[in-house]
Amino acid sequence: MKNKINYWQIVYILILIGITKSVFITLNDQNLATTSKILLSIIGGLLGLFIERIINNKKWIFKLFLLIILIAIPLILNTYYLNQNYKSCEICGYFAVDEEGFCNSCFCDEWETVKTTGDFQDYDIWVKEMQLETFALDSLNQENIFELIDSDKEFKKDTNWKPLISLIDLKENFK
Known about the structure:
single chain, 2 strands
């Protein structure tokens, strides 16, 4: 007698491994060590196995509904987490500055942090220099010059933000 493969069990294990890692990485600001990620994956797999055992005899529509709910959880948590407590960045214009004054979109410190180091004395000079660096052109024909496409998180753009530099400044800085 051959063992029947339980596809639902595999699906739940894989989904919950992904969910567990996603939730904890998001809540811990992606600073987890590799060992912690492996441990969270194991916990997620065991949780998936446990849930599958509980709903083993349920109809497939119930299992599918539960899968949709489980997939929605990290999406909701990520959206909630990304939209709370972030200030607008002076450099890139995204709501991505955390409580420590670091922009998670362009990876710059905010002015309050920078001015204490003594590297810059003038706010406008600092903003212009950081914007020239952040939005540096890859080619002279580049479009969307004040959008950060490389950001791995979806931050909202501050509609009131305006850059202190222009396309002309970026072209002059292009070399």
